[in-house]
Amino acid sequence: MSEDQKTVRVFARLRPTENFAYNNINIQPDGKTVDIHVDGGTAKGGFVNNQTTDWSFALDGVLHDTSQDLLYELSSRNVVKRAFHGYNGTIMCYGQTGSGKTFTMTGANESFQNRGIIPRAIQQVFREISTMPDYAINVKISYLEIYNETLFDLLSPTQTSPTGQGMTILEDELGIKVNGLSQHIANNEEEALNLLFEGETSRAIAAHQMNKHSSRSHVIFTIHIETRSRTESSSAYTVSKLNFVDLAGSERLGKTHSSGRTQSEATFINKSLTFLEQTIIAITDRKRDHIPFRQSKLTHVLKDSIGGNCYTVMFANVWGEAAHLEETISTLRFGMRMMRVPIAAAVNQVTDPGAMVKQLEKEVRTLKQELSMHDTLNNRTNSYDVMSDGQLAEVQRQVANYLNGAADGIDIVNVRQIQTVFGVFKTMFKTMEKDIEARLKEKYELAEKSAESGGAQQPAAAARRGSTLPPPPPGSAAAANQVGELDGAGGVGVGVADPARKASESSVVAQKKAAAAAQRKKAAAAAGKSPRSSRDASPAPQSPENQPTTAAGSERAATPPPRHVAFEAFKAEDGAQLNRILNDNKEMLKSKLGESREVANRINELKRQ
Q1: pLDDT for the residue 500
Q2: What is the mean predicted confidence (pLDDT) over 93-114?
Q3: Which residues, listed in sequence order, are joined to residue 319 by a DSSP beta bridge?
Q4: Where are the alpha helices (DSSP H) in 405-454?
Q5: pLDDT score of 474
Q6: Which helix (H) or strand (E) holds 239?
Q7: CA dist., res. 528 & res. 519, Å (int)
Q8: pLDDT, position 454
Q9: In this structure, what are the phi and psi dihedrals at residue 574, rounded to the nearest 5 degrees?
């Protein structure tokens, strides 16, 4: 296989027969083109017969009367060889029933010369292993059967008849994987051939008029290869798989005369092959966004084996007799579609986690040795291991001295010490934050409003501390030094606290107090009194009619008015001009709407006329 292969390679193989249709099938001298002529017949009932009668198919090779050895050399040897470099490969046979697919894939058991592609590939695999002593290569074998859209393990040691229970198709980073399918280690060619023959004896086979040993299922024989280098100390290794796909042949019930169970099997076979053709058409159509791989078990299993990350070779097996020209044309047309399937094969490289850990540990040791040598040459003594408790305590002491101002800096030795210093800073920051929060709670009395007392405040901070001491008697020295007053009615202290705990006034509170003092001065000036005399003189009793209202009084109301009341007051006073403009705009809008209705009515009347 050439290195610049971009599409699937397709070879046509013609079954040897005594009744070969030489008048209808013509193989060109280049060995890659086959021409087929079909007798169109005469027109019936005066209608013109537009059926195509001549076909020409250009493939990668047309094999007629070709030996098994030459067939393998032309098509399969390079696919198997590439598997040892990490490339996946697939070799599949497609065609009508009785066209020689199973003979191409497995060959004849009674003749060594007529052995098929799979036995020859097994032989090549173990010969390649013997020529690669610098690599440790593991070979595993699996054999999957798809019978009536059910998955079966032909190498399962626990079942005498396939049941298909518990087998599912999964996808991972390496491609398609069948969960529940057993993989058996093959240490030599003999063990691999025994596994092949064991699986062949479990296949579903039946007889009909066109084939006495007709395969009633699709089978996929897979060789899994894992290649590791013995000389390179790398944690990466390559994995690859070789899929050998023997598809069941398409059948026409009018020719096979199948009935009963055989007819049911033929229905499943034709259905799965139809889905396979639809998938190939979707792959080759660049305008298609979705490819229906999940339509059937066959297409789902072959998702990573039809082109893509895989070197694929297909054999279009045909029966070169005049009676089977329609099936021959159908098979070759499918082969032409397969030739348009693109290939983008890549090396499947996997990293062993255990080997990677060992490699990283070795690199760490090497780097530590280099750092130690560098420190020795520069007369420095540093340790690159995990810090001990004593070293950690020393770092904490240096950070504390730096924060207290006793030290101008911290001695940095290595990266590990820098990480430890940042960790100590973080711990100290959290500790200081908690201490500050606790001090604030102790310094300030946090009062809570009580709904039952109508907004009266209670010393919540003192209650949290669990203080049970009664308030000092009025007139005592302790009471004189306290801030706040006692409620004479209930005997409950409102805001009573030690002067040292009194919080400083904020800027907002100071501004409010200054505004209230200025307002009192204006009110006193209006009454003809100074602020001091008005404050010192005892207020004379006034009747309710002479008492100033809240709006005109010198003091601010205890609670603000409701929102709707404040809005109405704003519209009547400061917002009177804005309210008038808004009302004028509303009137203008109403008039415009009325005019638009009149215009719409006139238009409708004109339309009716």
Answers
A1: 53
A2: 88
A3: 15
A4: 415-443
A5: 54
A6: strand 236-246
A7: 14
A8: 45
A9: -65, -35
What torsion, rounded to 10 degrees, do the Cα atoms 472, 478, 481, 485 define?
10
The most distant pair of C-alpha atoms in the chain lies apart, rounded to whole Å, by 141
DSSP collapsed to 3 states, 196-220: HHHHHHCCCEEEECCEEEEECCEEE
Which of the four pLDDT bands, split at 50, 70 and 90, describes residue 40? low
Supply 171's token pair.
């996808």
Distances (CA, A) of 215 to 201, 218, 485, 566: 12, 8, 106, 94
What are the DSSP calls for 524-575, one per residue?
Answer: HHHTT--HHHHHHSPPPP--TTTSPPTTTSSS--SSPPPHHHHHHHHHHTTT
Using an 8 Å Cβ cutoff, are 184 and 155 in contact?
yes
Contact 71, 60 (CB under 8 A): no
Report the SS3 class of residue 12. Answer: strand
Partner residues linked to 135 by β-bridges = 229
CA dist 342 and 393 (Å) reads: 66
Residue 602 is encoded by which pair of tokens? 């006139």
List Cβ neighbours of 418 (8 Å cut-off, separation of 6 or more). Answer: 412
In order of 5, 140, 451, the CA distances from 13 in angstroms are 21, 30, 98
Give per-residue pLDDT as tens, 126-151: 999 999 999 999 999 999 999 988 89
Structure tokens at 170: 């999964």
Q: What is the C-alpha separation between 116 and 125, in angstroms, rounded?
A: 15
Residue 33: strand, helix, or coil: strand
Assign residue 281 a region (left: φ > 0; alpha: ψ between -120 and 50; beta: otherwise). Answer: alpha
Helix (H) or strand (E) holding 10: strand 9-15
Q: What is the torsional sign of CA 147, 151, 155, 161?
A: negative
Place of tokens 């699709």: 218
- Please name the residues in contact with 239: beta carbons below 8 A apart, sequence gap of 6 or more: 86, 174, 224, 225, 226, 227, 348, 350
Q: Express each pLDDT in 45-86 by its tens digit.
A: 556 566 778 889 999 999 998 999 999 999 999 999 999 999
Distance set, CA 314 to CA 92, 266, 470 (Å): 5, 22, 102
Q: What is the pLDDT of residue 121?
A: 95
Amino acid (one-letter) located at 145: E
pLDDT score recorded for residue 161: 42
Evaluate if residue 245 carries a pLDDT over 80. Answer: yes
pLDDT of residue 453: 44
Structure tokens, 522? 């204006």
Task: Compute the distance between CA of residue 211 and CA of residue 602 in angstroms, rounded to an integer.
Answer: 88
| N- to C-terminal Cα separation, the chain | 84
Mean pLDDT of the region 80-106:
92
Looking at residue 536, its pLDDT comes to 44
Cross-strand pairs, 33: 58
CA nearest 161: which of 177, 178, 140, 147?
147
CB 55 within 8 Å of CB 330: no
Indicate the angle between helix axes 389-404 and 415-443, nearest 10 degrees.
50
Q: H helices within 42-188, ranges in order?
A: 68-75, 77-82, 101-105, 117-130
Angle between helices 576-608 and 563-572 (to 10 degrees): 90
Pick from 302, 141, 301, 287: which is nearest to 221 by CA?
141
